[in-house]
Amino acid sequence: RSTLADSHVTLYQFESCPFCRKARSVLDYCRVPYNVVEVNPLSKAELKEVAPDYKKVPVLAVEGPADTVQVRDSKAIVQAVLTAVNAGSSGGPSKRPPVIPATAAMWPSKETEAMGAYLDSLSEVEREWILWTDRVLVQLIVVNIYRNLSESSETFDYLLTHPAFSMFWKYAGHASGTVVMNAVAMIRKRKFGLADERQALYDTLNAFVECLEGDFLGGSKPCRADFNVYGILRSVQSFTTEADMFANSNIGGWYERMQHAVGTSCARNTIARGPQPA
Description:
- By secondary structure, the protein is α+β, with helices and mostly antiparallel strands.
- Helices cover 48% and strands 7% of the residues.
- Strand 3 (59-63) and strand 4 (68-72) form a beta hairpin.
- It holds the Pfam family GST_N_3.
């Protein structure tokens, strides 16, 4: 904890990116103050100074008294922050991730791919869960939040009021992002053979709830897998998908417990999600 407490922490992110929300949720849970730098989704200019060889987010920069440490990849960030402050559940899930017929193409086997030495300390089941969040849950979120132009537009509304971007970048990013990601969602829906992307999401969330070991996957306290799932679902905050998933699945109870455990944001600056109704 002393390392993070004595450091200046900066998170480079996209506001509605599920991987970035994983990082934010664990920083908030561990009560680590941090600055948010919103990366321009088209130019990625903000990354060029800190990570010129890397074009993805999130990137966590920890500037200490002696040097600066950079952590890339949301899974690595979750693990690094929880380890640094000795937080999270000491245990992990015993049940394996759910596979339902609609998502079988996303999760063809139980094999675990290489995810970096930073996860070697976790059990095989928890590593499997973390892989499942990227292979299955993220894919379901993508095909849902971008499933039509109206909902795709919601995810980029934050650009329209972002103070750091010029008018050109605001509207160029909003328009191109809306169209491109809608096309991506349609391609992935066909690829995975999803007949009803909303129902697949509801069924997957209900299957997830059946795997809880009490309040969380980690038992009485959230484990690494809980934070990975929560961050992904938190990324749909205020979107149509969020309202629908609460109304049509059993995820609400776990989500509220995670929200309470994570607490309020420790970000020193926040990004508005877009034009607010009068």
